[in-house]
Amino acid sequence: MALRITGECINCDVCEPQCPNTAISMGAEHYIIDPSRCTECVGHFDEPQCQVFCPVECIEVDPEHVEDQDTLQAKFMALATS
């Protein structure tokens, strides 16, 4: 599953540099996560680094982008070779 950042985001700039896939960027009102680049850190870390470092815990699973571990691993491999 890709993750998403909720409206509770305080734009603290902590999550963006933690993302190894550069999936996080500034949106119109707060940071957003590009689901095509989010692997929940599969291939890099044991847990999503954006969630680990978020001080307000506003990053959650995006129910619109449900993916299993195999799909996330395949996405990681595709991103690593591009």
Summarize it.
The protein has 82 residues and is α+β, with helices and mostly antiparallel strands.
What does this structure look like?
The structure is a single chain. By secondary structure, this protein is an alpha+beta fold. It has a single domain, classed as Alpha-Beta Plaits. The chain contains three helices and four strands, in the order βαββαβα. It has helices spanning 15-18, 49-53, 69-81, and strands at residues 3-5, 24-26, 31-33, 59-61. The strands form two sheets. It has a two-stranded antiparallel sheet with strand order 1-4. Strands 2-3 form a two-stranded antiparallel sheet. The longest helix has 13 residues, at 69-81. The radius of gyration is 12 Å and the shape is globular. The two termini are 21 Å apart.
